[in-house]
Amino acid sequence: EAQVTQNPRYLIxxxxxxxxVTCSQNMNHEYMSWYRQDPGLGLRQIYYSMNVEVxxxxxxxxxxxxxxxxxxxxxxxxxxxxxNQTSLYFCASSFGTGGGELFFGEGxxxxxx
Amino acid sequence: xxEVTQIPAALSVPEGENLVLNCSFTDSAIYNLQWxxxxxxxxxxxxxxxxxSQREQTSGRLNASxxxxxxxxxxxxxxxQPGDSATYLCAVRWTGAxxxxxxxxxxxxxxx
Lengths: 113, 112
Hints:
The complex is a heterodimer of chains A (113) and B (112). Chain A has 113 residues and is an all-beta fold. Helix content of chain A is 0%, strand content 50%. In chain A, the strands form two sheets. In chain A, strands 2, 4, 5, 6, 9, 10 and 11 form a seven-stranded mixed beta sheet that branches. The radius of gyration of chain A is 13 Å and the shape is globular. Helices cover 0% and strands 57% of the residues of chain B. Chain B starts with a strand and ends with a strand. Chain B has no helices and eleven strands. The mean pLDDT of chain B is 94. In chain B, the strands form two sheets. In chain B, strands 2, 4, 5, 9, 10 and 11 form a six-stranded mixed beta sheet that branches. Chain B has strands at residues 4-5, 10-14, 19-25, 30-38, 44-51, 56-59, 62-67, 72-77, 86-94, 101-102, 106-111. Chain B has 112 residues and is mainly β. At the A-B interface, strand 5 and strand 10 of A face strand 4, strand 5 and strand 9 of B.
């Protein structure tokens, strides 16, 4: 089954404790992206990747890091989480440069205390 | 500034009614536009993708139109069903950009 898998789905952590949210897709997509969804603000792009070892900032990259060492994986790293990073996070992927149909993961709800 | 707006934020209709959801965008130089559905606690599911050169796309009871000159797209849902209840989001990719800009969505409730 074609899918984008995120882990963990739910996480409660404390300020400053490094964490990683993993994202994996099994569709051989070149393009992968991370979004955060906040009430009243909609989805905002954090980082995206056009292919292995090619990443770029989205609209709200501060406080986040990403890496793309393999085509199927695109982890989101919060080196020192803060309460304002409490949010619902989505990973997405598509063929090519991201101009096609976008497939989303189920989301990861992160709470930073 | 490039923005995507969806009004109203919420909409309730009786089952069986045909309805239209609206999406407006500030810059007509778009590459494509996608409509998504989001169920509570779930990710987004792509419904329809309209390329810049297209005027509309259809899938089953759904029809999405695109009018670049007026900066508008509509999602038409025919014969609505309770299972259509969800939040519907539109997202625009502008020409030359590598990211999508999302509207804040319209939460649709279809009343049995």
